[in-house]
Amino acid sequence: MTLRVAVIGSGPAGIYTAEALVKQAQEDVRVDVVERLPTPYGLVRYGVAPDHTSIKSIANYLRRVLELPEVRFLGGVTLGEHLSVEDLLSHYDAVVYATGAMVDRKLGIPGEDLPGSVAATDFVNWYCGHPDVSASMFTLDSAEIAVIGVGNVAVDVVRVLAKTADELSSTDVPHDVLERLGASQVKAIHMIGRRGPEHAKFTLKELRELGELANADVCVRDDEAVVLGGDFPRQIRGNIDVLQSWAARPPVGRPRRLDVRFWLRPVEILGTDRVEGLRLERTRLSEEGRVVGTGEFETLPVGMVLRSVGYQSIPLPGVPFDERSMTVPNEAGRVRDREYVAGWLKRGPTGVIGTNKSDAAETVRTLLSDLAGHDRTQSAPIDALLLERGVRPVTYDEWLAIEAAEGALAKSLGRGERVKLAGLEAMLRACRP
Question: Could you tell me the pTM of the whole model?
């Protein structure tokens, strides 16, 4: 008998799970990778910055998994809308949830809901061409912008804001978005961290890229770059050295300015009808190592605030969810009988893309051990049920047609290898003319 498994989500966690099932199973296995979008690869496609082509090349590895004869891609199918958990369990021997972490954490300060105060994930989705975000969502008409957070996502956001449209022209940024980036009125970008340089979460490679910006001076204040003692790991020591070197060099008058700030926390976003400023409080560490305010404040005259203080998962219909950890409760990937979880939905938003491979392998070991010796489902493939409900999944070949259309668009525009199609309708027209 054939082992049939549905994997919900086609990002790295989901595709690594499909690969582990094919490699580890000691019997015939068929894996359906179910994705709500018409396109696979999750954050590799819609989260990695467009100018980081070396990281985006991991899609070539994920592609090989989707092309395995035991694996099938079903795009445009949404759990909770087109299929329920009960539907999946009646057609598959097991289900693995791998939908990642899709939203930003909130700051929890007054004014956070003002127009112009948005999640960095929305901005990332915008410049990455995610179909959930319209190309018209952002108009960069503010002279100053604040980005709250000092992790790699924040670094990506400020780097894209600092670059010119010409510098991004060879990337896959949707053309309407590129035009808006080209019309940007931004002159100053503030990247703000609550703690000091030694606590920043960006990697040294990402940080150094900021120093290579041709269109922006990168500035660090002497007093905020000071680090008192400590035997720091090599990565952190490298970050400190780079930041202190920037503090020692004067700006040279490039068109934009990037201020990397430390020991400041946002306490209020100011404005009446939209963001007009950001009030910050100077911070320090208490004896217990907690961040506390000093009572010293400053205000930045920004017209947009992008928060980048961490991702979190959202509940799936019919699936257990822990509101404190924002994950699906599990034991080595096991959620309930024949239900499993992998990736950030399993462990929280930690690790790098490759971490999902070992994580998926653990979940699959648990799944195969649980199902060893159990009878296999006699149900027909889920295709008939989807057809009955008027759902026509996007196939892998149709995804390739979307990819080909993006290549043709880039060629027609004289822009690199690919330009992303903006919106679901454009994608579906490309694969179903």
Answer: 0.92
**Calpha distance 252→247 (Å, rounded):** 13
Mapping DSSP onto H, E and C, the string for the chain reads CCEEEEEECCCHHHHHHHHHHHHHCCCCEEEEEEECCCCCCCHHHHCCCCCCHHHHCHHHHHHHHHCCCCEEEEECCCECCCECHHHHHHHCCEEEECCCCCEECCCCCCCCCCCCEEEHHHHHHHHCCCCCCCCCCCCCCCCEEEEECCCHHHHHHHHHHHCCHHHHCCCCCCHHHHHHHHCCCCCEEEEECCCCHHHCCCCHHHHHHHCCCCCEEEEECHHHHCCCCCCCCHHHHHHHHHHHHHHCCCCCCCCEEEEEECCEEEEEEECCCCCCEEEEEEEEECCCCCEEEEEEEEEECCCEEEECCCEECCCCCCCCCECCCCECCCECCEEECCEEECCHHHHCCCCCCCHHHHHHHHHHHHHHHHHCCCCCCCCCCCHHHHHHCCCCCECHHHHHHHHHHHHHHHHHHCCCCCCCCCCHHHHHHHHCC
pLDDT greater at residue 313 or residue 279: 279
Instruction: Give tens-digit pLDDT for 43-78.
Output: 999 988 999 887 777 899 999 999 999 999 999 999
Write the pLDDT tens digit of every residue in 315-336. 999 999 999 999 999 999 999 9
